[in-house]
Every structure is written in structure tokens, then in C-alpha cells.
Amino acid sequence: MVIAFLLSFFLSFIPFSGNVINAATPTAVAPVSGLSFTQGVKKTVLENGLTVLTKEVHTAPVVSVQVWYKVGSRNEGKGESGISHQLEHLMFKGTKDRPVQFGRLFSALGSQFNAFTSYDETAYFGTVQQDKLQALLTLEADRMKNALIGAEQLASEKRVVISELQGYENSPSYRLNRAVMKAAFPNRAYGLSVGGTKADVEKFTVEQVRNYYQTYYSPDNATLVITGDFATEPVLKAVKESFGKLTKNQKSTVDSQERAVSQNSQPPTPNSKASTPIVLKEPGSAALLHVVYPLPDIKHPDVPAIDVMDAILTGGRSSRLYQALVESGLASSVDGSAAELIEPGWYEIEATAAPGQKLEKIAQVLQTSLSELQQKEVSAEELNRAKTILQASFVLGNQDISSQASQLGYNQTVAGDYKYIERYLAAIAKVTPEDVKRVAKTYLVPAKQTIGFFEPTQPDGQAGTSGSGSGRTVENFSPGQPVDPAELAKYLPPASSSTVSNQQPLPQQFSLANGLRVLLLPDRSLPTINISGQIDAGTEFDGNQKAGLALLTADNLMNGTQTKNALALAQTLENRGTSLEFSPSREGVSISGEGLSANLPVLVQTLADVLQNANFPDDQLELSRQRALTSLQVQLDDPSTLARRVFQQAIYPENHPFHSFSTEASLKSITRDDVLNFYRQHYRPDTTTLALVGDFDPVKVKDLFNQAFGKWQAEGKPPALNLPKVPLPKTSTRLNKVIPGKAEAVTYIGYNGISRKDPRFYAALVLNQILGGDTLSSRLGTEVRDRLGLTYGIYSGFAAGINPGPFLIEMQTAPTDAQKAIASTIALLKQLREQGITESELNTAKRSITNSYPVELANPSEVANIILNNAVLGLSPAEIREFPRRIQAVNMTQIQQVIKDLIQPENVVIVTAGPGDTASK
Q1: What's the CA gap between 280 and 432, in Å, rounded?
Q2: What is the percent of the chain where pLDDT is above 90?
Q3: What is the pLDDT of residues 207-226, one digit of tens each?
Q4: What does the pLDDT read at residue 494?
Q5: Between the CA atoms of 223, 229, 232 and 238, what dihedral angle is there, to the nearest 10 degrees?
Q6: Element housing 290 (H / E)
Q7: Which CATH number fits domain 41-262: 3.20.20.70, 3.40.50.970, 3.30.830.10, 3.90.70.10?
Q8: Beta strand pairing status for 909-914 and 733-738?
Q9: Tens of pLDDT along 3-30?
Q10: Where are the domains of the chain?
């Protein structure tokens, strides 16, 4: 439900989670002997030039279909900035034979689908049950040549794209990145944002976009990737039947442009004024630094050494820049990445200043760290750690078939060969200390850098004024009739006749004598392990006066134990490419760990050490407090997080645990004794649940857990809360928060809802799928996004946990469109309340949910989360298997009751945050 504004390498069309590929080279190697990620791949080139990559992976009954077009923002000429991204949107508007929103077709198939535009490529991907493979092929072949690009489609999607671009403008880091990149590459397309400019987007004509489509969306400029549970030869036959009949375009633009690019393989000459900082003084929160250095293209032999260099500089807590900037208290975060693309790319470093710290000082320390790398060779230990981090991240990042398909598609499209990754991995293993020193000297040159500072004009991160209203809207919109799934079905390609009969295995469950619960689900398909866990130590125990206590406690777990300090803990994990993280939420602290299966003992032992022996050193506690204060500033400056905070506090009374949020005062009031007491009181074995999925022996793992956790003891009964019942608001309430300097508004609409164990939950989930479960196929998406073009993304959902959470609708709009979008949404809720849904809608929603569920089960880390959540919520271990049946059992009577109980358009809380002029006049 959270709109993710992706700010740097690409623009994701559908703003929710999906397997999205970074424009930087995938930087990792396969560290496990004999493990190859291109083994079994078959490459076929059709007569029309389409490259087809197939890879059978029979670990789950699902398949991923991806189409990668070799066109992105680098192909755009003057006045065309953003046209690749605009075309990506239009590719969902239907075809000549299927004049319907393709998102509805994908949703009906149960596909987890998405798309993105980047500098060098535009990609479309979907993952479905195996019997839907032919349907995906048919749809992708259809829109490769027959997309509807007319005046009506372009006009509506222009508004949506502009809403998306304006959303990015809300981010100071986006604005700084844009200024730095434009200065670094003033005469290259890479210097412009992938999404383009509002001025260019507004001027796009139908003929202009259609010509661009006809030029680049051609079989000979595309790669089709299919991975998963299928037989190669029959699938290739189906591909030839669907894609083979498409003709390649007759234009020579692609070939001529590639010839021009091939002559430009070296890094560009830097801007002569690059070393002078670009300074943006604008409304914002935290101070930011952004540095860019030119790099060669992806095929340059220095690329592996550059990526190892990046891992040494920014790869984890033990990295040089983290130690120099974050551990010193100068910065609250630092990150780096190398963009190695078809044309010469760049290396960038970003840092967020800690409260009260000067960007000039951060830049000075940064330069000192880079100079040390240039002058002295790295140690063998540091080099091996960097390589291992790259190695393990590559293996762990390819645990699901969608990611494997994306790796193949990226390498074939950008590097020109899907086998590129094997040469890259071999080269990573051969990088020497001399290589790292050499590339640092060659590319991290002060005279070649472009550096930018963002200096906020609101240093305290305080939001602006607020107002409230009755919520009575002037507009009286009449929504269009809901889309009839029966009408939609005639455009849906048939699924194959085969049935998916895979029986989902159930986790083994056992408890230690101290009450710690463990769930085990072996999966030998890859040499990886995934740990998901929860401790009942969430922010619900904070209270308003000490809001942030659960956060600071969780953030400090990895800052030292009785035997290891923070750096030693980090190196213990990072030396093996293993990760372990803790993140607090309302109802618990989430544990997330992953690594190669050989490192399971180290991961479990480290987890056990920090849960039992954390010592919370004063200096680290103070650093984490400063980072929390910086994060708070950023949250108060972000329309989405500020609106959610105000929305939550408007729904829940002050004495309710869901009302409390961190403030500057509450964070500063928390002492080390507060943290120690919270740790001792809430971190207990009998409030901890762990789920392990991956390559392991259950018998040995039980012994491992007993050895690591068996001595952990707790006294008395665990703390418990008795949450007060929260009634609906008596009337509709409207609140507005103004944040200076923002371009786009974010709105939340809703009220308190239900818990996960509420007997109405399954019916509510099906109803929500119809209402707003997907921004392209739902009623809200169809009306507010597709028909009216008022929002980039709109969603609804029931945040149902152990306790009732809010029912909410979230949308992003231009400030002048906020009121219209709100009025349209309320009208849709009234329509739903008064007219209900159709039997066809009910059946389609149930199929969509149940068809997409096997896709989630194909990802080991997702499975770990599912079995953990089921256990924490008090559900049966069999719920992972029974869930689809419970959805299918939902009937119309239950839906009608849920509408009556849970859809209350007259009692909503409406909160909008962003620039002014969003309230009703």
C-alpha cells in the first residue's frame, strides 16, 4: 500500500513493490563451487530478430515472463525527455484487439506484474502460475506491435506521469541528484532524469510517441526471457506462434544510434567547474551531499575492480566510509553505487549529515578516505570481505525465478550477452589490491568530481501550518459504472488446461523449554537460508512520553555485546556475506537474516548473542539517537509519512498505543537506563518466534538452536497490553498539513478497521481487491487514475494485525487535484455501499488472489515471512496451505455483511499533506 517513489536509476510504472532492477551492474559473484546462473539457459533468435532466453527452474509451479526493450532515456533527443517513460505507461492502455487496461488482464490472471524505464532499457514483467504462461506470452506479443496510442490514452496518462514526476519533486535528494547529474553530464542524456521534464511531457504529441514506439518496440530490439516450471521445446513453439509472426520495424534509428554509442566508450571529459560545489538552498529537512565521478561503460575491463572498490568504501557497517562518516557522528547515512551502462556511466556517493554537522566537513573527510584508498593498498582481509559481500549478495538476490529472469534480461540488453555475468564473476575473483588502488587513482579524481550540497531552509524539519474542515466536499461526482469482469473476460487469453497440484509443505514447529518458538521449512533448491522472526517488543509499548524507546532499543542491538563491539559484530557477518537486521513496528520487532547455508551457525549464534547479551554502549546509543533525530526530520518533511502520522493520531485516542509517534523531545528524553529496562522487560524467549527457510538439516538445526538459545531465561509473565476499543468517528473529519516546498500532495482516507483473526478478514480481503487492491485493476484505480487521471497511484487496504489496524485509502495527487480525487473516492465508497458488487466481480477477485498466491510461495524469503506471520498472529501452521481455500469460500452474503460493517463513507478521517491549496474552498 505504500507508494515507493524510486528516485535515481529508474522510474517504476506501478508504484508498489515488485522485482525491479537497478540500472547499475549487478555486482556480485557466485561463491559456491559449481553454481552457475546461466547454466541451462537456452538462447534462441527468431527470424524477426527477437532474442529468446529460456531457463527451466522446477522448484515451484510458477513462471516469469519478461520483455526487455533496448531503449531508455539515453535514446531520447531534444524535446523528448521522458518519452520512453511516457510510452511505458501507454503500453498498459490496451491494444487494437484488446482495448482494455492491461493491468486488469494481468490481475485477472493472478500475475505479479510491473514495469520500469531506465537509462538503457524498458522492461515489462509478470510472474504467474505455470498454466498462465501462454496467456502472458499472448498479451506481451500483442502489445509489442498493437498498442493503442491515441489522443485519449495519451491525455490521461500525461496527467498520471506528471503526477508521478511531481511526486519525485517532493524529495530533496531527488532534486539534488538532478542538479548534480545535469552539471556532471551537461551534453548527454544520462545527465537528465529518466522521467524527463514536465515541460517536455506536456508537449508530447500522439504522432511523436507513436513514432517512438514504432522505432524501438521491434522484435529485433527486444529480449524475451522465460524462467520457471515449463518444458523448453513446447514453450519455444508457443513463442514462435505468438511472437514469430511480428515483423521487425523498417527504421534504421536503432542501428545508427548503436554505431554512434560504440564510438563513445570512454568516460566523458568532466565539467571544468565540476569541483565547485553546487549548492541548493531550498525547503527541506536534513542536509545532503552528492558526489559523482565519471566511469567507463559496462564492457570496460575495470568494471569488476570498480565494484570491489565500491564494496570496500560502502559495503556494510565495516566499510571505510561508514566508519569514517557514520561511526564518527558526521553523517547519519552514507551510500555508494556504480552505474556501468551501455555508454560511459558514473560512480556516486550520497551522505546525509547528522544534526548540526557541516557538509564541508563531511566532504573533507570523504576526500581523505578516498585519498587513502588511492595511496595505500587494501589488506587481504578487507579485499576478501568486499568480494564475499558481492558474492553472497548475488546468490541471495537470485533466489526467486523473477530475479533470475531479470539478471538474464539485464545482461543481454545492457551488456549484449546473457553470459556476461559469468565473465564478470570470474573477473571479480581475480581482483587484486593493486587493481583497487589503480581504479581508485584513475576514477576517484577530485578534478573529475561533481559535488552538490543540499542545505535545508527548515533545519528543524518542522512541518508548516495545518487546518481542518468538516470534510464536506463541494464537488458531487458520479462515478462511472464499475468494469464488468465478464466483459473483460472476452479479451483474456485462455490458460492452459494443465492443473497445478503442488501441495505446499508445512513447517515443522517446536519450542524450547524457555518458550522460544521455532518454525523450520527445509528447501534444498539453493544453498541459502532465510531467517524471519518477531519479538513482542514493538512501539505499542512506548507510551507518548518515551515514544521512540522501542526504536532505539532495536537499533542498538547490533552495537555491542559482552564479547564483541559493534565493528566486530559487523565483521563477523560481513566477512561471510551474511546480514542480520532488526526493525521495530507497532506490534513487534522484526528480525531479518539471510546468508549462504554454510554460514547458518554464525548467523544463529550472532542472533542469540545480541538478543541475550546486548550491552548498549553510551557512545553508540548517542549516535543512534542522532540518526533517529535526522530520520524524524525527514519524516516530518515527507508528505506520505507526515500524512500517515496525522491520520493515525486522528483515528486513535491519545491513550491508545497506536497514537504515539516519536518527537524530538521524546527521543532526547530517553536514557540508557530506559533502553536497558525496555530490553530486559520485553526481549524474552517466550515472546520470540523464529522461522527458518532454506538449505539445512532440521535435526542439526534443532541442536543448533538449543545450544544458542537454551540458556536464555525470563522471569514472570511477559508484558501485555489491553487496548481500548476504538469507535468510528461520529462525522467525517478533514485535516490538512502544509509542508513548504513540496510539489505533490499525499492523502489518507479511512478509520479503524479489523484484526487478522476477525472472522470477516477473508471477505474483507476479497472486497478490498475489488475496491483498491491494485492501482490498475481496482474500482478506485479505474475511476480515479484511469478515467479521471487524477493520481499516479491509489490503493486501499486493511492493516489487520494482532489488534485492529486502520482501513485506509492512500493516493498521490497534484495539490489542485486533491479535492477532486477525494470527492471521487468518497463517491465510490457510497456507490459500493449502496449498490454492492456483482457475482462476476466476486469470482474474479477470488481468482486473482488465489492465482497470485503460488507466486509468493516461490520466493524463500517470502515463505519465511508468511509462516512467521501466521504463527505470530495465532493462526494454524496449516494456514499457508489453507489460505487459498478460505478465499475461495468467501460468498456474496459475507461480502454484503462486510460492506455493511466496514464501508462507512460518512465517517472517514481525511488527511492531506503537501503544498497548500489542497483543502476545500
Answers
A1: 39
A2: 84
A3: 999 999 999 999 999 999 99
A4: 84
A5: -70
A6: strand 288-294
A7: 3.30.830.10
A8: parallel
A9: 222 222 233 333 322 222 233 333 333 4
A10: 41-262, 278-400+408-457, 508-710, 733-914
